[in-house]
Each structure stands twice: as C-alpha cells, then as structure tokens.
Specification:
- By secondary structure, the chain is α/β, with parallel strands linked by helices.
- The protein has two domains: 90 residues, Orthogonal Bundle (Methyltransferase, Methionine Synthase (B12-binding Domains), Chain A, domain 1), CATH 1.10.1240; 137 residues, 3-Layer(aba) Sandwich (Rossmann fold), CATH 3.40.50.
- It is 51% helix and 8% strand.
- Strands 2-1-3-4-5 form a five-stranded parallel beta sheet, sandwiched between helices.
- Helix 3 packs across helix 6 and helix 4 packs across helix 6.
- The structure holds cobalamin.
- Cobalamin (B12) binds next to helix 6, helix 7, helix 8, strand 3 and strand 4.
C-alpha cells in the first residue's frame, strides 16, 4: 500500500494552464493599464468609465477640468478608461451590458467636457461626419465631432449606421471641404470604398478621412480619397489642411510628418 499521508496536494494538483487562463479582475487590469496616467483626477475620470460610474462621472470631469483642458480630459481620461473597457471586453471579462453602461458614462463625461470648450464664432469650414452603415459604434466619431466643433469647424453629424447613399447625398448638398467615416466592425468598413467611388463619379474629390478599429492606413489608402486617422485629436489638424486645399494625394504623401507626429500609433 502506498503511503499518501505526506503528499502535498496543493503542489501535485496545481493546474498551471487554468491558473494562467484565469480571468483577471477588472480592478487589477485597470490598475495596470492606467498606471501611465499620473494625474489623480484624470485617473479618477478614467476609472469612472471603467467601473461604469455614470452617476459620478460629471462631477469628476468638472474637478479634472479645473486644471486640465477639456481636450486632455477627454483623451487622457475618458478615452483611457474606454481603452480598459475594450481590453476587458476583448478578454471576456466584461460583457455587452457592462460595455453599454461604460459607454453611457463616457458620453456624459464628453458632454461635460464639451460644455467647457470655447468654439470660435467664425466657422473655418464644414465637415460631414458619419459612422458606417450597419455600425453602432459612435463614441470615437462623437469625440472627433466635439474636437472639430471646438476648433471652429461647422460639423454636419449624420450619426451612426448611415447608408452609403445618404452620405453621398449629404456631401453633394453641403459641399464640405472634408468628409469623415468611422467603422469599428469588419462587416461595415466596405462602405468606405463605395462612398469614395460614388463621390468620384459625381466629380467630388474632397479628402475622405476614415478611422475606427476596423480599418488601418493600408486599407484606407487602397481606395481613392481615403485619408487615415487613428486619433480624434488629429481631426482639427486634418480639417485645417483640407481648408488650405490639400487633396488626398498630398495628405498621403505628408501623412507621417503631419498625422504621425500627432499621436498616431
Ligand atoms: C463600446 C463598444 C460597443 C458599444 C458601442 C456604444 C457606442 N455608442 O459606440 C455597444 C455595446 C453598443 C457595442 C455593440 C456591439 N459590438 Co462593440 N465594441 C465596443 C468596444 C468595447 C469599444 C469601442 C469604442 O468605443 N472604443 C473607443 C473609441 C474612442 O474608439 P474609436 O471609435 O475607434 O475612436 C478612436 C479612433 O478610431 C479615432 N476616430 C474615430 N472616429 C474618428 C473620426 C475622425 C474624423 C477622426 C480624426 C478620428 C476618429 O479617434 C478615437 C480615438 O481618439 C469595442 C472593442 C474594441 N476593442 O474596440 C467593441 C467592438 C467594436 N464591438 C464589436 C462587436 C462585434 C459588437 C456587436 C456586434 C456585439 C454583438 N454580438 O451584438 C454589437 C453591435 C451590434 C449592432 N450591429 O448593432 C467588435 C467588432 C469586431 C469586428 N472586428 O467586427 C469589437 C471590436 C469587440 C470585439 N473584440 O469583438 N459595442
């Protein structure tokens, strides 16, 4: 008979595969990702998004705004928080309901920050914005719209899930100096080349700034008019160059210098 009395089962039955696959707690992951946010008030704002504190986010954004400009409260606080939410969702720790409440907190935070932005009276030019047909992800587009408005551009915000025809018709009607599209789903990004093609057919050759997690620079530059952006903060810079008359070819040529230096990954 084998004597098992001295066996330490803790060691024998330790399943390292389960241990490494074990889901991390939201608090632990948030602490890791937000370690780079040194300002305590901005960190608090980011945590409001991560932990779905939609009741407290407006007050915390107001506190952060005392020392930090609205654009930074959005980018370095609210967007950072959504980065954590994306990670939690991607790892299966958060589910859609949590993401939706986090998105609501983010939206309230953006509205509070937006109210502190000083828009210039005289409009510099018009931008038509939309989220691709079939796509409900409008957080990034909303941030970009706020930043464009606060920098003095007139924004025609068509919202989310906008059919190709409606975008083309709106551009034809408003004659903006730039049109933008956001797509976060691989099933929706194909709307962009179709829009570009239709605009070209109509002889409208304005830069078409395309962004969102589903697209990358190579994809956006594979169809005419496409100019890639990956940060909302790049919007006003791109729009000001479009006002100067830059066409999409010039944007592509100058992209590394212009956009790459402004936060692109
Ligand atoms: C929040 C979220 C939602 C929310 C959206 C709320 C809202 N109002 O937007 C809700 C809960 C509704 C949702 C639903 C779904 N979602 Co979702 N969602 C996300 C999540 C977690 C975060 C997206 C986000 O807001 N990111 C933060 C914002 C700030 O990023 P952004 O929009 O890209 O914007 C940045 C840049 O792109 C840029 N930018 C954007 N627009 C513009 C414009 C201009 C002019 C400029 C200059 C810059 C710019 O600036 C921003 C940064 O500064 C992502 C995960 C992920 N990894 O992205 C999944 C994700 C996008 N969702 C996904 C899916 C599959 C869905 C669902 C289909 C799930 C389901 N089974 O039902 C549904 C959609 C159903 C439908 N068709 O209606 C997938 C898409 C997969 C794919 N490759 O196609 C993702 C990637 C999750 C995953 N890993 O699977 N979702």
């Amino acid at each position: 008979m084998i004597d098992l009395s001295g066996v330490n089962y803790e060691e024998v039955f330790r399943r390292y595969d389960i241990e490494t696959e074990a889901k991390e707690k939201p608090e632990t992951l948030a602490a890791k990702i937000l370690a780079s946010v040194s300002d305590a008030k901005l960190k608090r704002v980011a945590e409001d998004v991560v932990f779905m504190n939609y009741k407290g986010v407006e007050a915390d954004v107001k506190v952060a705004l005392e020392k930090t400009k609205p654009e930074d409260v959005i980018e370095k606080g609210l967007v950072k928080g959504m980065d954590v939410v994306s990670e939690l969702y991607g790892r299966g720790i958060y589910y859609l309901p949590q993401v939706m409440v986090a998105a609501k907190a983010m939206e309230l935070g953006i509205k509070t920050a937006e109210s502190k932005m000083k828009g210039e009276r005289e409009m510099k030019g018009t931008v038509v914005m939309h989220v691709a047909e079939g796509d409900p992800h409008d957080i990034g587009k909303n941030i970009a719209a706020v930043l464009l408005k606060s920098n003095g551009f007139a924004v025609v915000d068509m919202g989310r899930d906008v059919p190709v025809d409606e975008v083309v018709n709106m551009v034809e009607e408003k004659r903006p100096m730039m049109v933008t599209g956001t797509a976060l789903m691989t099933t929706t990004m194909s709307a962009f080349p179709r829009i570009a093609e239709r605009l070209i057919e109509k002889g409208i050759e304005i830069p078409f700034v395309c962004a969102g997690g589903a697209v990358n620079r190579a994809y956006v530059e594979s169809y005419p008019l496409g100019v890639y952006a990956d940060k909302a903060i790049q919007g006003p810079l791109l729009a000001s160059k479009a006002v100067e008359g830059w066409n999409y070819q010039k944007f592509r040529l100058m992209w590394d210098e212009l956009v790459g230096a402004h936060g692109a990954k």
